[in-house]
Design a protein that fits this description.
Low-confidence stretches of chain B: 1-14, 151-162
Number of strands of chain A: 6
Helix content of chain A: 25-40%
CATH class of chain A: Alpha Beta
CATH superfamily of chain A: CBS-domain
Largest interface: A-B, 44 and 54 residues
CATH topology of chain B: CBS-domain
Mean pLDDT of chain B: 83
Strand content of chain B: 15-25%
Mean pLDDT of chain A: 87
Strand order of the largest sheet of chain B: 3-4-5
Largest sheet of chain A: 4 strands, mixed
Number of domains of chain B: 1
Number of strands of chain B: 8
Structural class of chain A: alpha+beta
Structural class of chain B: alpha/beta
Number of domains of chain A: 1
Strand content of chain A: 15-25%
Order of helices and strands of chain B: EEHEHEEHHEHEEHH
Radius of gyration of chain A: 17 Å
Distance between the termini of chain B: 26 Å
Radius of gyration of chain B: 17 Å
Shape of chain B: elongated
Number of helices of chain B: 7
Distance between the termini of chain A: 33 Å
Shape of chain A: globular
CATH architecture of chain B: Roll
CATH topology of chain A: CBS-domain
Oligomer: heterodimer
Low-confidence stretches of chain A: none
Helix content of chain B: 25-40%
């Protein structure tokens, strides 16, 4: 993972919202694109992220209304350098406890990261192929 | 399946909306793995089957949960490949559960209070499903539009952390 450039595995296909958008509308965007987050894009740049789970937490705390705007709930999403490796991204995610990273206006989330690592796209995955998927109990 | 006390009138007086029960909206299909499984195997399972989390069992009983994020944060970021550790080593435990008969609003309060995205759903003490933030989120437009937010109240149905 030290030599794999993370940027090569990012995507530009993510739901995008603006700070002034309604959170409930943002949820619809997430559902339509089958993501559990939406990127906050301002003037063409990714500047933040709205997590579906954070919206649910806000509802659970009684803080969500039909008028709640993305700006009230989104958090900043720091960028990581375009030359970052998978190792860099993993440490970045862990240190900040974030679920996505932004690289040059593209996105790499934790699931994409796992898929990239544990599929045939990477040579290192060959190391793991001998292990069959565990049986499912239920 | 609805609760008699779950009807709440809309603010606009346009009828009522029954808050769904956890058992109605959770995923009844979920994946469990024994706690002795190596993380590398479970990560492969998550990646190839498009899972977000798996429930870890011991002796057939749920004892913890492992998510895609916890594999990144607690395994890869610590320099492990996943071959050296088992899911029992990295799982979040004890598992937080909620009764299938509880309302979704109560599940949301429990998620918020614990900052946990996945709840084990039980009925009569047995694991019957997995409730994620996704299941709650897709109901929020109706829940917010009709009720304005979760009602304060007792916490029947909550079982976590257990």
């Amino acid at each position: 993972m030290k030599d794999i450039r993370a940027f090569d595995f990012t995507t530009t296909e993510y739901p995008s919202v603006g700070y002034d958008d309604l959170v409930l509308d943002a949820l619809e965007s997430m559902a339509a694109s089958q993501r559990d987050y939406a990127m906050v894009v301002e003037q063409g740049d990714i500047v933040g992220v709205l997590e579906q789970a954070e919206v649910v937490f806000a509802y659970g705390r009684g803080e969500l209304t039909a008028d709640t705007r993305v700006a009230e709930m989104a958090r900043d999403l720091p960028w990581i350098d375009a030359d970052a490796t998978f190792d860099d991204v993993v440490r970045f995610m862990a240190a900040l406890d974030i679920f996505q990273v932004c690289i040059e206006n593209t996105v790499l989330d934790d699931f994409m990261l796992l898929r990239a690592i544990w599929t045939e796209r990477l040579a290192m995955a060959r190391e793991f192929r001998e292990y069959e998927a565990p049986e499912v109990e239920a | 399946m609805t609760r008699p006390d779950a009807d709440i009138s809309s603010k606009q007086g346009q009828g009522s909306f029954s808050i769904p029960l956890v058992g109605e909206v959770c995923s009844a299909t979920f994946t469990t793995v024994p706690r002795r499984r190596r993380v590398v195997e479970v990560a492969h399972l998550i990646a190839t089957r498009w899972l977000s989390a798996v429930i870890v069992t011991e002796g057939g009983h749920p004892v913890g949960i492992v998510t895609k994020h916890s594999i990144v944060r607690d395994v890869l970021a610590r320099g492990y490949t996943g071959m050296e550790v088992t899911v029992g080593d990295v799982m979040r435990s004890p598992i937080v559960s909620i009764d299938a008969a509880a309302g979704v609003d109560r599940a949301a309060r429990l998620m918020a209070a614990t900052s946990i995205r996945y709840l084990a759903v039980t009925r009569d003490g047995h694991l019957v499903g997995l409730l994620s933030h996704y299941h709650v989120a897709r109901l929020l437009p109706r829940l917010i539009g009709q009720a304005g937010g979760p009602r304060a109240g007792r916490s029947e149905g909550m079982q976590g952390p257990s």
